[in-house]
Amino acid sequence: MSLPSSAYLSFTPDLTICRILNGMWQVSGGHGRIDPQAAIASMFHYVDAGFTTWDLADHYGPAEDFIGEFRRQLQATRGVESLSKIQAFTKWVPRPGKMTRQIVEDNINISLRRMDVPALDLLQFHWWEYRDPGYLDALKYMAELQQEGKIKHLALTNFDTEHLKIILDHGIQIVSNQVQYSLVDRRPEVAMAAFCQQHNIKLFAYGTVCGGLLSEKYLGVQEPGRWELNTASQRKYHQMISAWGGWNLFQELLQTLHAIAQKHSVSIANVAVRFILDQPAVGGVIVGVRLGVSEHIVDNARVFGLNLDEDDRVQLEAVTRESRNLFQMIGDCGDEYRR
Prior knowledge:
Elements: E1 8-12, E2 15-18, E3 20-23, H1 36-48, E4 53-55, H2 63-78, E5 87-92, H3 101-115, E6 122-125, H4 134-147, E7 154-157, H5 161-169, E8 176-180, H6 192-198, E9 202-206, H7 232-244, H8 246-264, H9 268-277, E10 282-288, H10 297-301, H11 310-320, H12 326-329
Parallel strand pairs: 3-4, 3-10, 4-5, 5-6, 6-7, 7-8, 8-9, 9-10
Antiparallel strand pairs: 1-2
């Protein structure tokens, strides 16, 4: 199986990515046991199918270690040139506090060692507390490390529009911001997307299939109780659905998605992902992978053959207009982590 050229984006002049990124939060715990050998074998399946881009973090359990081992096995079996065909985007999520050059460099060195890379393709930075201005110091030191060749590109995760602007005003070049973005959570459209387009910053969207809740499995069923939700992702996005409009409105959304999916001979998840990929500021959508447990490679590939028409979009907009205003309730992108 191979993906069409439309599945890829020239993200930066030196970096082409797959627009569906393999999300590795699922190996961090809370999603069931992951067998390392099975996980690495599964990573080969994704890359061989054309899904070459990985999203991970320093705190996603063994995710960085998996990338390191995968790279070593890839080089051993297919040669060093094969390493240039994959991209691994990690995150640094430090505790708030004073940021020194030594602290920043020590943590970057840990990721370099775990991932077994000479330089990080993309470092996505998260900061928990805006009242602590240490994030600007951390980014200044990361920019120095970028100049020294340890980091190729600097990015953010879960920053709001106001603080993204502050960072740019301090002369720090950012290429992307990773935010929650789905048919349920469209807060990026209020302010973030337009600002990013203006400054040539791409959005990476997560939560786009709501931890699997946007699927046929939950169409026409009663609202699951907390203990029926099997993963941390499902529990998280169930709470978001409750805030957005509740289970009844969510069923209306699923019914609409199902009708559109049948029309195009695809899945509900395909339609949900395609809708977000079509938004102008979006560079890619992160879809979680449960390595060695289950694979959705064939289904994910169908996204790149799907073209939603104007009628499809009108139907989806009609449902989402009935929801509550999450921007007013929660705030801008990432504010759910700072309430």
